[in-house]
Design goal:
- This protein has about 450 residues and is α/β, with parallel strands linked by helices.
- It folds into two domains: about 160 residues, Aspartate Aminotransferase, domain 1; about 280 residues, Aspartate Aminotransferase, domain 2 (3-Layer(aba) Sandwich).
- About 35% of the residues lie in helices and about 15% in strands.
- It has a seven-stranded mixed sheet, sandwiched between helices. The chain has a four-stranded mixed sheet with strand order 1-2-3-15. Strands 13-14-17-16 form a four-stranded antiparallel sheet.
- Helix 5 runs parallel beside helix 12.
- The two termini are about 30 Å apart.
- The structure holds 4'-deoxy-4'-aminopyridoxal-5'-phosphate.
- 4'-deoxy-4'-aminopyridoxal-5'-phosphate binds next to helix 6.
- It comes from Penaeus vannamei.
- Its EC number is 2.6.1.18, 2.6.1.40, 2.6.1.44.
- This is Alanine--glyoxylate aminotransferase 2, mitochondrial.
Length: about 450
């Protein structure tokens, strides 16, 4: 069955691409939330190409817009202008609050965060940057420093001037460590639904204060990076109030605050278009990618005119950033999100998904925590609920593989690799949720017996 998958496995591909899966999938086509392999078998795609397919695989409206642009103009570089880039920048900035009005188009999340680091250093005149221990912000030489988790590191010196503050993690505890977890934490969902400030955010902020005071020369900060909900880190949600306090603290020490909305943006959280809005903060810069292009390489930094001004000291240049094709895709994604009422679908279907997964959590000892907002959902797997010890990698992979065999593709992540991530194209339905839950129930039953 996997014969022609084997044929494409070879020395001329990045080994990480071909060694990861025992039974690799060969995907031939996609439509909305569905993927089809070489045999024609259908899979419900609950990971959307790592949180990237936002409105749906080959969404007809996006296909039409791209085809139209393809016949007009593909590329000019950003030394010429074209109408689509204006239209797109205008529409994109309308979704953002405050003074966030200047867009720099690039091609990937890593590039966006690279540029945000540069701008923060130029604007503040400071060098030191803080990110969180469980964060993922990219894999370029600059952003690899921001990304804290060892999985992505190559053990060479990088990330000069980047410091990591311990991560708030309402499920695993204040230090994010299950072994010495000193805090009997609340469920993450409670901390997001409670209106007001979660009392435990005080404790989390102490860590950040220490980093500023003792690790950064003279306490002068250039920037603080945070995802509104940690994506690769396994759907970790900060207690309400944490980001607000963190932003205040960073700004009081000269830094700017950067929200990485690469995963949590474009309505995915259901409640708001941007994840940071759920925390009641307005960042100085927003970085975005993934869902922005529905699979087309497209990313951006949006910032204030004052911060953008510092970029006028030299010429910022990006060959492909915001080219006519990218702008046409981005614009049609924004239009489609609105026309299809995607954010509302995330809210309704996401809430239902969380409710149904919570039943599995109550039924099965290895489902430790179910959390999320909208269609940014995480299911943390444990050996048992008391110790919260992460489920081992082999069992995680068996569950993942078995779900796939039954036609459901999940994502994986988390600090200990023990979190299933559900971030599908945002067009899934309640019937898809029912299908997923029935597959998961069957697979979990097999796993524990
Ligand atoms: N930020 C976040 C929150 C991400 O999840 C990712 C990718 N997983 C990136 C940045 C980097 O994006 P890219 O892979 O497009 O460089």
């Amino acid at each position: 069955e996997y014969d022609h998958v084997r044929k494409v496995r070879g020395d001329n591909l990045n080994p990480a691409l071909v060694t990861h899966f025992k039974k690799p999938l060969l995907i031939h086509s996609g439509h909305m939330q569905w993927l089809f392999d070489h045999t024609g078998k259908r899979y419900l795609d609950l990971f959307g190409g790592i949180v990237t397919v936002s409105v749906g695989h080959c969404h007809p409206k996006v296909v039409a817009a791209v085809t139209d642009q393809m016949n007009k103009l593909w590329h000019t570089t950003n030394i010429y202008l074209h109408p689509k880039i204006h239209e797109y920048a205008e529409r994109l900035t309308k979704t953002l609050p405050g003074d966030l009005k200047v867009v720099y188009f690039v091609n990937s999340g890593s590039e966006a965060n690279d540029l945000a680091m540069l701008m923060a250093r130029l604007y503040t005149g400071n060098f030191d940057i803080i990110s969180l221990r469980n964060a993922y912000h990219g894999a370029s030489p600059y952003t690899l420093g921001l990304t804290a988790h060892g999985t992505w590191k190559y053990n060479i010196a990088n990330g000069f001037g980047v410091h990591h503050a311990s991560n708030p993690d309402p499920y695993q505890g204040i230090w994010g460590g299950y072994r010495d977890s000193p805090v009997q934490s609340t469920r993450a969902n409670e901390s997001t639904v409670v209106d007001g400030v979660c009392s435990s955010s005080e404790k989390y902020i102490g860590q950040l204060e220490e980093v500023i005071k003792y690790s950064i020369p003279k306490g002068k900060v250039a920037a603080f990076f945070a995802e509104s909900i940690q994506g690769v880190g396994g759907g970790v949600q900060f207690p309400l109030g944490y980001l607000k306090k963190a932003f205040d603290l960073v700004r009081a020490n000269g830094g700017v605050c950067i929200s990485d909305e690469v995963q949590s943006g474009f309505g995915r959280t259901g409640e708001h278009f941007w994840g940071f809005e759920g925390h009641g903060v307005v960042p100085d810069m927003v970085t975005m990618a993934k869902g922005m292009g529905n699979g087309f390489p497209l990313a951006a930094v949006v910032t204030t005119p004052a911060i953008a001004q510092t970029m006028s000291h030299a010429l910022h240049f990006n060959t492909f950033g915001g080219n006519p094709m990218a702008s046409a895709v981005g614009l049609s994604v924004l239009e489609t999100l609105e026309e299809d009422k995607t954010q509302e679908n995330c809210r309704v279907v996401g809430t239902y998904f969380l409710q149904e997964l919570a039943k599995l959590r109550d039924e099965y000892p290895i489902v430790g925590d179910v959390r999320g907002k909208g269609l940014m959902i995480a299911m943390e797997m444990v050996l048992d609920k008391d110790s919260r010890t992460p489920l081992d990698a082999t069992t995680m992979m068996e569950i993942w593989d078995s779900c796939k065999e039954h036609g459901v593709i999940l994502g994986r992540g988390g600090f200990y690799g023990n979190v299933f991530r559900i971030k599908p194209p945002m067009c899934i339905t309640q019937a898809d949720v029912d299908f997923t839950v029935s597959v998961l129930r069957h697979v979990l039953e097999q796993t524990i017996n």
